[in-house]
Amino acid sequence: MRKKPGHDTQTRLVGLRQSPSADGGAAGHVLRVGCGAEGLERLEASFIGQAFSPHRHDTYAIGMTLTGVQTFRYRGERRHCLAGEGHILHPDELHDGGAGTEEGFGYRIIYVDPSLVQQALGGRPLPFVANPVIKRRDMEPALIACLNDLDEPIGDFERLDIALVIAGALEKHASAPRQKQAPLHLASLLRVRDLIADDPKVQRPVKEFERISGLDRWTIARQFRAAFGTSPTRFRTMRQLDLVRRMINGGLPLCDAALEAGFADQSHMSRMFKRTYGLTPAKWAAALI
């Protein structure tokens, strides 16, 4: 029987499975996926050495370091996140990740769909947190609770509560408001988003987005990013990679998963996978427990 997340994390760091690192050395990789819900993914991870190469994803990534020192480069600066501290990464921001000491580090993280944050904010533009490290004294108990009990199922009301807590934390820690933007055409943008998500294998022409939304292509491009934190093209790629991850978990070979998800070939899929998750598909699959 698996232990609850957070039990014996330090012990697990000592006995990690080893997988080759990019420089020919060895780095420990352990990833454990928790219970999620629509728009929410939870993960517990432990690493020794360099964990992730530079990558970006289209969700908010909100985590807390459990053990050791987590270090990552974000918006041109090297950051350090100590045990008990949290971090908030904005969608589509490039970052890497690794251990700040030889002992390695462990953390829990929740990935939050910007659309869910949008709903909690009532359609306002997404908050931007420029300083990603949240000191221990500023970690709200409700935010910590969102990261606990990864094995506990998330019901409908719990999902709404988590979204409200996350949205509140983002607004609390956000930088000074950006320049005033035009009101978002959220209902129209959601039609574009849903069309992509319904079948990400299909690359749709811009004219189809204009037709279903009633917006011109420039408005779609500007406001889609303001609403959801990334571009329509990047959003489609991420949904393709969601399909790939599910198929890999189901045992499908990488070459077949790439084609089934609509990529040109395995090489193209692997490049996109590493740019998104900081690991190759093979290393990602090997690290899962």
Automatic annotation (TrEMBL):
Biased amino acid composition, Basic and acidic residues: 1-10
Keywords, alphabetical: DNA-binding, Transcription, Transcription regulation
One matching Pfam family: HTH_18
Positions of region (Disordered): 1-25
Residues of the HTH araC/xylS-type domain: 190-287
InterPro entries: AraC-bd, AraC_XylS_family_regulators, Homeodomain-like_sf, HTH-like, HTH_AraC
Record's keyword annotation contains DNA-binding: yes
Top-level division of the source organism's lineage: Bacteria
Record SMART domains: HTH_ARAC (SM00342)
SUPFAM superfamilies: Homeodomain-like (SSF46689), Regulatory protein AraC (SSF51215)
Protein name as annotated: AraC family transcriptional regulator
Taxonomic source organism: Archangium lansingense
Lineage, highest ranks first: Bacteria, Pseudomonadati, Myxococcota, Myxococcia, Myxococcales
